[in-house]
Amino acid sequence: MKNKRIIVIGGSAAGPKAASRARRLDENAEIIMIQKASDMSMASCGYPYYVGGFFDDRDQLLCSPAGVIRDSKFFWNAKKIVTHVNTEVTSINRKAKKVEYENLLTGEKGTLEYDKLIIATGAVPRKPQIPGADLDGITTLQSLSDADYLRKVGEEGKIKKAVVIGGGLIGIETMEALNLAGIEITLIELLPQLLTFLDKHLARLIEKYIQTKANVILRNGVASFLGENGKLKAVKLNDGTEIPCDLAVVAIGVIPNSKLAKDAGLEISPTGGIVVNGYMQTSDPDIYAVGDCVEIPNLITQKPVHAPFGDLANLQGRVAGENVILGNVAKYPGTIQTGVCKVFDYGVGSTGLSEQNAIKLGFNNIETVVNTSLDKPGFMKGQLLITKLVVDKSSGLILGAQVIGPGDVSKQLAIWAIAIKGKFTVEDMVNADLPYAPPFSLAIDHSIATAHIMQNKLRGLFKGISSEELKNKLNNKEPIHLIDVRNPNEFEQMRLGIGEKLIPLGQLRSRINELPEDKNTEIVVWCKISLRGYEASLVIKANGYKNVKVLEGGIMAWPWSREK
Amino acid sequence: MKNKRIIVIGGSAAGPKAASRARRLDENAEIIMIQKASDMSMASCGYPYYVGGFFDDRDQLLCSPAGVIRDSKFFWNAKKIVTHVNTEVTSINRKAKKVEYENLLTGEKGTLEYDKLIIATGAVPRKPQIPGADLDGITTLQSLSDADYLRKVGEEGKIKKAVVIGGGLIGIETMEALNLAGIEITLIELLPQLLTFLDKHLARLIEKYIQTKANVILRNGVASFLGENGKLKAVKLNDGTEIPCDLAVVAIGVIPNSKLAKDAGLEISPTGGIVVNGYMQTSDPDIYAVGDCVEIPNLITQKPVHAPFGDLANLQGRVAGENVILGNVAKYPGTIQTGVCKVFDYGVGSTGLSEQNAIKLGFNNIETVVNTSLDKPGFMKGQLLITKLVVDKSSGLILGAQVIGPGDVSKQLAIWAIAIKGKFTVEDMVNADLPYAPPFSLAIDHSIATAHIMQNKLRGLFKGISSEELKNKLNNKEPIHLIDVRNPNEFEQMRLGIGEKLIPLGQLRSRINELPEDKNTEIVVWCKISLRGYEASLVIKANGYKNVKVLEGGIMAWPWSREK
After folding, report:
1. A485 and A451 part of one domain
2. Whole-angstrom Cα distance, residue A319 to residue B33?
3. Alpha-carbon span A226 to A236, nearest angstrom
4. Which end of chain B has fewer CB atoms at under 10 Å, N or C?
5. Residues A202 and A106 in one domain
6. What is the CATH number of the domain that holds A382?
7. A538/B448 Cβ within 8 A
8. Among residues A438, A458, A478, which one ends one of the domains?
9. Among candidates B352, B337, B333, which has minimal Cα distance to B277?
10. Which residues of A touch B336 (CB under 8 A)?
């Protein structure tokens, strides 16, 4: 029997994973991987940290955990995989089951037959179609050569000012990297918020934090790049503002690199991703596709999404690598679009649906809550966490969680990600049994406390108001009675200063007569994080007040400026 | 209508939580909490860290997050809860629905009627019934006064040598605390291993690590305490060894403090815990019990267990506090016995069943695997994690996970804890969607990679051998062909030295003729963590060898001494 030949197009993440998995399942298959770039298996998610100086040895981006560069020799010796680098597949002939390729350095062309083909062509950065886009000093942070360029910029120290265009994950990571390299950054975002996987409230908190490190401009796009002698000198925004800079990094998103698949007549989704089934198989049963070039189902909505995450690319590669060898035995179920990024000392992430996305997708019966607390006890140097939880109001099914803060964000996200995958309701989380010891968490873990508040809210015990709702009411000059229930010394150190009265929780019962006589008055109470605020709201309600709300997340989750 | 009176016996963790929850649900109930000690709501899990000098302000053990000491004034002002400290409830008259109490300072006695009673009397440390047990210098680390005593010992610096008796959670935490206070420690454990929630293999790895900081003596108990002038001078072990010391901390476990409940005729389990139903209700419908004095169901086995964890005490308190006010509406489902502790730079923990416990409980069709990897990329200063996963062989249902190492152990445990609660199978974890970015995790998270290996093992692709099995085979002088497949420089730096031959993976295919001719020869391969070992095993198998195994977890999980 002739050995099966597997051709993998793309050698970054999903491709090598698919090729390696295929090899492990069949020592005799002929496996050939064709990579357009000169490097393979690059740790591309690590580029911002190389640029930002978290480590200096560039080889670490290209090495196996044992410290061997993953080049053609490595792939052949360790995995018996033939690799062609600097080589582009120019067309797929599905009828003849052949690919045509061209070596980009030598111009040499060739043809290879396949039994099974795996397309892992990744995504390409969106590029702004505006004047000056070809000036020197404009880049993306997508390839290793981009990373090399930006690292050199940082090391040389000549460039003092840069503009990062795009406030998504890559834009934010690039902003941090260049800031750490000592460059003054302006971050530009066309939308009214950064990081659109977050709801506005949390995005605003991150924006506030980033503003301590960089200039942030929202609701403004780039109209043109201005230059002198072919070199970038400034960025001109839609509103006419000119921002002098010697460097601009464009990070306005990526689109599936599906041209090759499209030209071959494979089914492509309206938004450009290659259409695959659960086996990662395209509309041609002998061709699979994986990674940033495909669309996969969102597990909550079952609608296809483009989810260009490195971890998912690897998992999909594993599935396709298995199926090309064993037939369709492995299924990739889909994503809940879990993502996280580091922003200086903060972690920022989301899993499942945000409120904004849920509403956009037609969920019309959701409940949300914001919880603020430390991640572990203060005496163990606990750090702040802010979580926004989104659930289905009738069933209590958990739909999504966003977590930000200097605390242990990634653990919180992992907890919610598994809970969402497991179709947990709030009730399932309320008595979860998580690892507790003071060096690692609070006695009632932040995630469980969040579920408690949500449970109280669903049952009508906790009536919350979001920062945004309160702000709107204040802007509309609605008559609200505002009460801060912290201690006087806390009030002296920090306060919102939006017209609130201080009544410490411990005095509230004896000072209840200081509240408005009209029991229908809208009353909003808070404390630092709103645990005391919650207790206060119950005391006030028990005294006959009918419209008492707790400011969710307390002062720590207030995203606008404070009096002090 | 007369207000309901709730009496809570016990003011440490579960009691205050129950009282506070009751208050939040009924502003008018009369709530009285009776506490034997002088302090309330102590962060008792924080004692070892106070002793070990992680923080210096003792008040932090007693303060609310807002910095207010949780004394009687606090409970009254903030929560309208009456508290009696230094007061012991001496009996419960169930017929008359009364408790009798005595103030331990003044001798004053009294009686209080209740509508609902909550027993939260906690646990008491086991004490060795051996000669010399009343000498000065012998203590436990159970109460705040114990913590004060040990903290003073550390600050005074007079005591140079101490013995910690008991290698469980508290013993290990105490050992660390006293070591950090500059005291030379000997840790004594009667059983053949430390930390019995771990399987032997992982316990042995922890023992090896602790031995770099303290002397560890296993399989030996304390026969007597030896003293001079009423002061401890040495500990005499069962085998006659005398260990000079001025301090001994006894940490041989705790037993439910259920005497009061027993005397009142409430149902008590054979092992001494108060029997409660899912509502945390005892055999008397007007009496609830919560925390370390009760037994609760293990969610996997449905068998009752004593699980004295601070987080569970709080959750149970919340349930009972709700039920005494609203009737039986809240249920506490039970525990999967998730636990974690810090041991110097290591985290150590378990959730669900260990292999040993599963076997003891009659599970006779389980599969296990050990996975070793970094928690995040090496270039982001990733640290080692070692996980042992236990699953049901036929269904793939996840039964338990143990995780140790300097890496992010608590996140891994949280992931497995939620997965076990969600009744995940290995297949559910294989494509989990966890938060990935290089500062937080590997592209394929350690937990997912563990599931991958288990999936491969269940399908017969990965044939593993545990360190213990291999060690036994070596001891029995079974003829095994041993191969280390790392690079020569790695082999020079570190190796097991148990008779293995070095054949780097990259050379294996061309050197396959160096393997024994007999294709039935038992071959065991490994690398540092056994990813390359796995690949090597597949290459060897593909060459016709029928008995090829991978050393699970590789060199990093080898719990015995190495050649280098």
Report:
1. no
2. 58
3. 7
4. N
5. no
6. 3.50.50.60
7. no
8. A458
9. B333
10. 433
Q: Is residue A130 part of a domain?
A: no
Q: What residues 309-338 of chain A have any CB closer than 8 A to a CB of chain B?
A: 309-315, 318-319, 332-333, 335-338
Contacts of A345 in chain B (CB under 8 A): none
A153 — pLDDT class (breaks 50, 70, 90): very high
Please state, in angstroms and as integers, the Cα–Cα distance from residue B165 to each residue in B168, B221, B461, following that order: 9, 8, 44
On whether residue B281 sits in a domain, the answer given is yes
| Contact call for B312 and A374, based on CB within 8 A | no
Residue B542 CB neighbours (<10 A): 17
DSSP A453: H
Report, as an integer, the average pLDDT of A462-467.
Answer: 96
Rounded percentage of chain A residues whose pLDDT exceeds 70: 100
Mutate to test the interface with B, among A397, A418, A458, A494 (most CBs of B within 10 A): A418
Domain that holds residue A410: 339-458
Residue A370's φ and ψ, nearest 5 degrees, are -110, 130
Which CATH number is A500's domain given?
A: 3.40.250.10
Question: CA–CA separation, A325 vs A244, rounded Å?
Answer: 55
The ipTM, to two decimals, is 0.97
Same domain? For A229 and A287 the reply is no
Residue type at B360 in one-letter notation: K
Select from A80, A311, A434 the Cβ nearest to the Cβ of B417: A434
Query: What's the pLDDT score for residue A406?
Result: 98
Q: Is residue B562 part of a domain?
A: no
pLDDT in tens, A341-392: 999 999 999 999 999 999 999 999 999 999 999 999 999 999 999 999 999 9
**Predicted pLDDT of residue A530:** 86
Nearest-neighbour CA in chain B from A278: distance (Å): 12
Question: Do residues B261 and B119 both lie within one domain?
Answer: yes
pTM of the model: 0.97
Q: Give the full edge-to-edge strand order of the sheet including A294-297.
A: A274-275, A294-297, A304-305
CA distance A284 to chain B (A): 24
pLDDT exceeds 90 at position B128: no
Same-domain pairing of B343 and B451: yes
User: What's the pLDDT at A78?
Assistant: 95
pLDDT digits (tens, 9 = 90+) for B108-118: 999 999 999 99
> Cβ A413–B434 below 8 Å, yes or no?
yes
Among partner residues A54, A414, A435, which is closest to B349 by beta-carbon distance? A435
Q: Is the pLDDT of residue A542 over 90?
A: yes
| Residues 6+ positions from B64 with CB-CB distance below 8 Å | B70, B74, B78
Query: Are the beta carbons of A439 and B49 separated by less than 8 Å?
Result: yes
Vertex B193, ends B188 and B195: CA angle to 5°?
90
In a domain, A128, yes or no: no
**Amino acid, res. B440:** F
Total domains in chain A come to 4
Chain B nearest CA to A422, separation (Å): 6
Nearest CB to A431; choose among B55, B61, B332: B332
B424: contact with A, CB 8 A cutoff: yes
Of A435, A529, A531, the CB nearest to B351: A435
pLDDT of residue B1: 56
Together in a domain, B421 and B519: no
Using the Cβ of B435 and the Cβ atoms of chain A, whether some distance falls under 8 Å is answered with yes
What are the chain A neighbours of B461 within 8 Å (beta carbons)?
24-25
Closest CA–CA distance from residue A279 to any residue of chain B (Å):
13
A226–chain B nearest CA distance, Å: 34
Residues B376-386 have a mean pLDDT of 97
Write down which residue in A192, A224, A252 finishes a domain.
A252
Shortest alpha-carbon distance between residue B309 and chain A (Å):
8
Distances (CA, A) of A533 to A203, A540, B247, B301: 24, 10, 46, 40
By Cβ distance, the residue of B68, B78, B435 closest to A413 is B435
Q: What is the pLDDT of residues A66-100, one digit of tens each?
A: 889 999 999 999 999 999 999 999 999 999 999 99
- Are A438 and A528 contained in the same domain? no
Contact call for residues A154 and A132 (beta carbons, < 8 A): no
Shared-domain flag, residues B238 and B260: no
